[in-house]
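Quick illustration, no need to memorize.
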Amino acid sequence: MEIGIRGQKIQYEKREDGICITGCGGEASVIEIPETIEGIKVTSVGAYAFAQKQEVREIHLPDGVREIGRYAFYRCRNLEKLGLSDGILEIGGGALNGCRPGQVEIHLRRGKASALKSIVEEVRFAIRATLHYHREDGRVETAQVLFPEHYEEAVENTPARILYTSHHGSGGYYRQCFYERKLDFAKYDARLPWAVADETPETVAELALKRLRFPVGLSDRARESYEGFLRDEGAAAARFLIGEEDTEGIKFLLKKELLDGPALEAGIQAALDSGKTALVSLLMEERGRRFPRKQKTFEL
């Protein structure tokens, strides 16, 4: 069966436990699966349902979905964002094979467990996850975390004829920060030294900024570590935020006074080079406030 929804042609079938999405047609780049079809709750995504849909850039699944089948998004090469809920605790094998969804957004209404562990274990590329924790009192706390890229390769010690595995990037360490499918923020924050050793300053700056700006589960000790890094690498943080055109992020750094004089100068130059006039003004105003130039005086 098939139904048309906002330019999407959704194929589905009725099962005992609800509607299963079996395929998708049309040219829509953003696919939003509805909560119900024919008044019946959508509960699953079948195997190969979105396989090789090259035009798809975002897929958002409703809260009622409990299962994502094997190879559901196989070779969706342009998939950039996946939205789901904590109704899904694990994705089918190979579901994201051939994909690199840089963004994952999850709404957690039932607790702290989700399919994030399953997702980051399957995708070696960098993933930026946004986690919305819905509290019983109605509040929603949002965390943003970066899982850096990582990969392994087999390297041969030719004289000894021994193969050993070489690990690249800190992403492998960050992918081990889960307990019973729950992200352990204390373990995540403790991985900062590995990121500093293996990643570029810009990547670590992004990671640190996400934790400081969205501090769910952030301890005072971890906050001090992240702030210390940003003070040391303020120029990298400024360059990253200017590249992202993240004005609020720049304002955050300025409010916390995490940019020293050289970092402010680096930020101003980066903003000038990229033509970001509003950010140039913002940074120059801060420079004038914190580092006012002395008036020259002349004695006769």
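Residues 277-290 form the longest helix (14 residues).
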